[in-house]
Amino acid sequence: xxxxxxxxGPLEIAADSATDDDRSRNLQDYDRAALxxxxxxxxxxxxxxxxxxxxKKYVDLGCIxxxxxxxxxxxxxxxxxxxxxxxxxxxxxxxxxHHHRPPPPDNYTLALNKGLMFFNxxxxxxxxxxxxxxxxxxxxxxxxxxxxxxxxxxxTGGFYDAxxxxxxxxxxxxxxxxxxxxxxxxxxxxxxxxxxxHVKEIIKWGTDYFLKTFxxxxxxxxxxxxxxxxxxxxxGSTEPNxxxxxxRPEDIDYERPVTECHSCSDLAAEMAAALASASIVxxxxxxxxxxxxxxxxxxxxxxRDQRGRYSVGTEAANFYNSTSYWDEYLWGATWLYYATGNTxxxxxxxxxxxxxxxxxxxxxxxxxxxxxxNKLAGTQVLLSRLRLxxxxxxxxxxxxxxxxxxxxxxxxxxLPYYNSFNRTKGGMIQLNHGGPQPLQYVxxxxxxxxxxxxxxxxxxxxxxxxxxxxxxxxxxREFAETQMNYILGKNxxxxxxxxxxxxxxxxxxxxxxxxxxxxKVKYNCKGGWKWRDTKKPNPNTIVGAxxxxxxxxxxxxxxxxxxxxxxxxxxxxxxxxAALVALSGDTSVGIDKNTMFSAVPPMFPTAPPPPxxxxx
Length: 616
Prior knowledge:
Layout: E1 2-4, E2 10-12, H1 20-27, H2 41-48, E3 58-60, E4 65-67, H3 68-94, H4 107-121, E5 167-168, H5 169-192, H6 196-210, E6 224-228, E7 258-261, H7 265-281, H8 286-305, H9 326-340, H10 343-349, H11 352-357, H12 376-389, H13 397-414, H14 439-458, E8 463-466, E9 469-472, H15 474-487, H16 512-515, H17 529-533, H18 563-566, H19 570-583
Antiparallel strand pairs: 1-2, 3-4, 5-6, 6-7, 8-9
Helix pairs in contact: 4-19, 5-6, 5-7, 5-19, 6-7, 7-8, 7-9, 8-9, 9-10, 9-12, 12-13, 12-14, 14-15, 14-19
């Protein structure tokens, strides 16, 4: 084939008949002079093409096949990491460290630990091995056996009331209610103090006994036990009993009669409050909690059906006289509402007529003073909690708002800026207006004040008004701290009124078990009088007992014979423990908002009725 050569002459284009192999061999003949110099690897690869590849090696792991190189690297990395971790661990364990110890317990926690021990010293019945009061033993094992009725043959257990060996169910049930209330609100603080299990054991010791004092399996009853033991020494009686004799409970050999009551609304409603509040404490033990709730319902029904005051015509009127049962109706109904969520009880607790009978709408010298005899102030605080944290609305708002306002008013009366209550020169508020045994009222007020302060904080309420003046919620806590500090030793006598707390405390406590040595000698009824009358300190220290307290001039006589100064009580110590746990520990830890409402169903306020139609 010929073509035109642009440079002149013909151009011959040969047909492309050569194969690729021929062209490849012909390339070797071209420019051999240029190929005579050495080539680098890249140039050789261009000319020679890819060389023979090395064969990869693999490791068969049974479930998977991986490259040997990857396998070696992986195993090596794991071994290296293990060696490094071991080296670091070795360094950490061998290098000396500075342990950051938790801060020491505050004074309120220390006093709380001791205050609970008082209840161990007051136990009746067969004591548990871990009771931890060396000078106490089993006692009252025949309580109830002398009873003519077959219903109450076993009345062992419970707590002795004070320095004697009588079991008064009225103040005892109030004490258990107060302890349960404090656990419901401040279980985290009890836990932090290492006392949660202890206080729950104490409460259960009381509620187990209460369940023996009436037919708790029945829905309707006609009687309950009011008292075990006797203490009447009127008209110079020399009959051996729990007040005439000075005997260790373990050595009692005289008869201990049982007092029943058939019309005792106050006692039954208070016992219902004790069982209902305890049922919330033990809500995780469903069977026991339900047993307590059933018992509380039965008792409260009895209190409503059989109207009357338990102390009428009995010797209890000389020691724990009840002047009304209306406050117990409010108290018991409120606790039953919290325990069951049944609005029937809330409707009763918020009935204006009931509140009026209980004295909610007129003041008086003891307005706002919580005690074993009057629970109105406690109920007002409990129902203020409901309004602050749940706000149920209509139809409860009006009366709950009233209770809330009343609570705010008596909280104002606790402040030093107001003259509702006098104070001693040392700073103790005189809630019983200079009467004897003042500390039991002081500790209850300290508990309510701290609790109401925590309620306000939990509801993001900064404070409250006393007339035109606004006060921070912290002011109530400061009041409580001032009063509790007085009790723990910050007073003119520099004396702690809690036995065993501090270095200076009462040594002649009015208490039979603490004043008689445990020396294997059984002292009969009058044989123990020498220990009652001796001026020597008690041989046994009743740790945690809060004595009755000083007089209106801050004076105190540490003498065993004067119970108005030196006798401790269950009700007083329950208030002490409640106030101490409320103030103890981290101040940023407030109340448990939800446990109290664990049985309360969601509240959807009912719409108020429409207004009356307009008429021209």
